[in-house]
Design brief:
The chain contains 21 helices and 9 strands. The chain has about 500 residues and is mainly alpha-helical. The strands form 2 sheets. Strands 3-2-1-4-5-6 form a 6-stranded parallel sheet, covered by helices on one side. It has a 3-stranded antiparallel sheet with strand order 8-7-9. α18 links the parallel β4 (about 390-395) and β5. The longest helix is centred in the first third of the chain and has 30 residues, at about 45-75.
Amino acid sequence: MASTPGILTDWPWTPLGSFKYVVLAPWVIHSTYSFMFGEEGTDLFYILVFPFLLWRMLHNQIWISLSRYQTAKGKGTIVDKGLEFEQVDRERDWDDQIIFNGILFYIVRCVLPKAQTDLPIWRGNGLVITMLLHAGPVEYLYYWLHRALHHHFLYSRYHSHHHSSIVTEPITSVTHPFAEHITYFMLFAIPMVATLLIGTASISSYFVYITYIDFMNNLGHCNFEFIPNWIFSLFPPLKYLMYTPSYHSLHHTQFRTNYSLFMPIYDYIYGTMDKSSDTLHESSLRKEESPDGEGLNNYGGIYIQRNPRLKVKVVDGSSLAVAVILNSIPKGTTQVLLTGNLTKVAYALAFSLCQRDIQLVTLQQAEYLKLTKSLNATEGKVVHDSSYAQKIWLVGDGLSKKEQLSAPKGTIFVPFSQFPPKQLRRDCFYHYTPAMKIPKSLENVYSCENWLPRRVMSAWRIAGIVHALEGWNEHECGYTMSSIDKVWQATLRHGFQPLISKEAAKID
């Protein structure tokens, strides 16, 4: 909500809540009836409006899922902050603008005589004219409308609602008051109405244009950078015709720069381009992937810090997961290869292996440097070797197909991740993910994960149960861990038994 909401802030169907879609029902029913029974001929545009609205919702949902997945990974993130629940609640009605556009499409089709004639499916000249009109009048008028919306009078009543989201996500792009969406539709309607009046409109030109608007809106607000620099090096004028996620992100953090819609050319012309646009684009592309999704929360540590008076204990189960893996490594092993994303479990596992005088091998130089720095390992404890000669592999998320196919025949893959790797080799052996058999006394538990056998539970779940049974009065989260030996012995005392895959058992 804007700081001082103006008129036409709320959508007309807001009181309907989740039943707001009923406002489309009359047109959907009428268009379907007309198409099926030929009341008004075979008007493809009229019948395709509703499927197109569904496509727009799916398109937006794909962007939402992709953006949140990338945020969890951390690679390419522009504004490195989490989403607040208030923002999620504020943006949950992102589909209102799709409903609004659908109603306007239906109304225009019924009111304008030329819209009632059968539009062709494709006309190339109509699509070209549409894009030219967008690059000219639409982009130009939007630039000045956007600057006007940043005037105190309009900003406080309308546009501040959109700028409440500093950390943007795709649906932030359409989180505006109702009045703003009216003006935006009037701008975007210029190419559509113009091509209709001059007789070059087509169903494809309309649907492609709206999809382009959705795509660019979502791209500009997704909060992760993925547009490579080589595109602009290959075709330098493109930087005036296409913005990037980091380019528009600066508008949300600096407010008075980068006003353009999708084409930065008008920021260049009128001197409102942020001078740090190129620098932010390059630095965002170089940003490395987070070790894993849990790392965003410091493995639960931030939650504990924010809630110091918790009456329950938070247990991430890392110590038991490490214990299970250590006891899965064949006795007499002197060297293992560790590859995959370096998580809390991976670092703890590496430390324990070094204490047991088992040499740790990494395939990647970056992994080698991170481990040696973290462990302060003496020379020879951790080595970098890309020969793929090792027969015991400890693997996590991020194990590549190439790496797995390069392993020697008879390799034992022992996962330290919660999800198992895809099994590509029939001549190798795969352990289960860290898990144990549950005791017979534990009733009404048959299956926990679909990649584990019956009455087998993952180590992370078991750790919480054992923690409670033992009455331990400390958290196991953040970057701290319980004693691996203590947790392992306590788990065995409570009847949980080690689990070894049938394939791996053949080599024992």
